[in-house]
Amino acid sequence: MFMGIFFAVILFVLVGFQFQAFHKGKCVGTVVCKMGDHRNSTFRGYIAMLVVIKPYRGRGIATELVTRSIQVMMESGCEEVTLEAEVTNKGALALYGRLGFIRAKRLFRYYLNGVDAFRLKLLFPQPELHPFLPMMADRDATQMHDDHSPTSEEFSELHRNL
Ligand SMILES: CC(C)(COP(=O)(O)OP(=O)(O)OC[C@H]1O[C@@H](n2cnc3c(N)ncnc32)[C@H](O)[C@@H]1OP(=O)(O)O)[C@@H](O)C(=O)NCCC(=O)NCCS
């Protein structure tokens, strides 16, 4: 599926980690994450950065990087994953939407350039709602859940956590 692409993981001290995708010895994409307690109540994963260099986009590399990160977070006991994305970043919003993230909040002028952000959230543990895990071994199975809409239980859970 990923001809010649090699994925590596780097662990930081405590709860930070990063996945990188390599092609011919060159890093072509990365995701940087951390995990920690949120308001002393929720053990939460956070995606701080995701980027794939232009010539390598559209091949599923970002999806694979994020999916691997989500799996680490799930296995580490996270109850949810969050991140922020510019409201104008259609590519990122589509990517995370496909993976089951919902738009939890709009953050007014969140970025220095004045653009608003969406806070995106993926709630655990409900493996039956996120059968794209484990991993992307079967992309067809993933696509079956592209149009997953949050259930009322997810909304209730979400509002309890806002
Ligand atoms: C966003 C980004 C990481 C996507 O990387 P990628 O490797 O091309 O993503 P994938 O190939 O895994 O894309 C998976 C899905 O995401 C969506 N997607 C990704 N890029 C898209 C774009 N430019 N427009 C619309 N949808 C897009 C599509 O649904 C795509 O599935 P498809 O190819 O079957 O249609 C990459 O464009 C990038 O590095 N952008 C600049 C940095 C950035 O915006 N990071 C996110 C910050 S929140």
Automatic annotation (TrEMBL):
<feature type="region of interest" description="Disordered">
    <location>
        <begin position="142"/>
        <end position="162"/>
    </location>
</feature>
<feature type="signal peptide">
    <location>
        <begin position="1"/>
        <end position="16"/>
    </location>
</feature>
<keyword id="KW-0808">Transferase</keyword>
<keyword id="KW-0732">Signal</keyword>
<dbReference type="Pfam" id="PF00583">
    <property type="entry name" value="Acetyltransf_1"/>
</dbReference>
<feature type="domain" description="N-acetyltransferase">
    <location>
        <begin position="1"/>
        <end position="125"/>
    </location>
</feature>
<dbReference type="InterPro" id="IPR044542">
    <property type="entry name" value="NAA30-like"/>
</dbReference>
<comment type="similarity">
    <text>Belongs to the acetyltransferase family. MAK3 subfamily.</text>
</comment>
<dbReference type="InterPro" id="IPR000182">
    <property type="entry name" value="GNAT_dom"/>
</dbReference>
<protein>
    <recommendedName>
        <fullName>N-acetyltransferase domain-containing protein</fullName>
    </recommendedName>
</protein>
<dbReference type="GO" id="GO:0004596">
    <property type="term" value="F:protein-N-terminal amino-acid acetyltransferase activity"/>
</dbReference>
<keyword id="KW-0012">Acyltransferase</keyword>
<dbReference type="InterPro" id="IPR016181">
    <property type="entry name" value="Acyl_CoA_acyltransferase"/>
</dbReference>
<dbReference type="GO" id="GO:0031417">
    <property type="term" value="C:NatC complex"/>
</dbReference>
